[in-house]
Design a protein that fits this description.
single chain, 5 helices, mainly alpha
Length: 187
């Protein structure tokens, strides 16, 4: 993996992307699916919990590396598979454990920094808005009529106008008549 500091920075970067995605999804679900207003304080709490969950995950991975290193210590036979570690692997397992622990430490520091949590919430909110905007753009592009882009526009214009007269205007007239009759009956 290279230098431990580089691996820690990369791990924090990956965790940041995962946290941003989780917070973005939470914002989308709460505001669109559940119809709630954006609540910065609630989203900030969720963002902090997400970062702490990721830190816990990294600490569990560090503990797992320590346990694997202890089991591998003193084993000099040929390994039977990828995760069957031997004494020659203990140095790499120690380095990986330090990397996981370093990522966890950085994530805990992040979780305790309100400015960094606010930045995460802002980035997630912008990403959520970007998703909504892209979805609206796609829908508007599909639903919007553009006669320049339709080679059959002129040929189909007469059929559309006939449908407008015979179906839509007739339906509109019928609806207006029912409303007038209902108004007369209410008086």
């Amino acid at each position: 993996m290279g230098r431990t500091a580089d691996a820690i920075a990369e791990g924090v970067s990956i965790a940041a992307a995962a946290a941003r995605l989780a917070v973005r999804n939470r914002i989308l679900v709460e505001t669109i699916a559940e119809g709630a207003d954006f609540d910065r304080a609630a989203v900030s709490r969720f963002a902090r919990e997400t970062i702490l969950d990721l830190a816990d995950e990294q600490e569990r991975a560090a503990a797992r590396m320590k346990a694997l290193r202890r089991r591998a210590f003193g084993k000099y036979s040929t390994s039977s598979g990828t995760h069957d570690y031997r004494d020659r692997d203990t140095r790499n397992l120690r380095r990986r454990g330090k990397q996981y622990a370093g990522v966890a430490k950085e994530l805990r520091a992040w979780a305790d920094d309100p400015d960094r949590i606010a930045d995460l919430v802002d980035a997630a909110r912008n990403a959520a808005w970007g998703d909504v905007e892209a979805n609206l753009q796609r829908r508007l592009a599909v639903e919007g009529a553009n006669y320049d882009a339709d080679p059959d526009y002129e040929r189909m214009r007469k059929a559309r106008m006939d449908a407008l007269r015979m179906v839509d205007l007739a339906r509109l007239a019928s609806h207006a008549k029912r409303r007038r009759e209902a108004a007369v009956n209410d008086d």
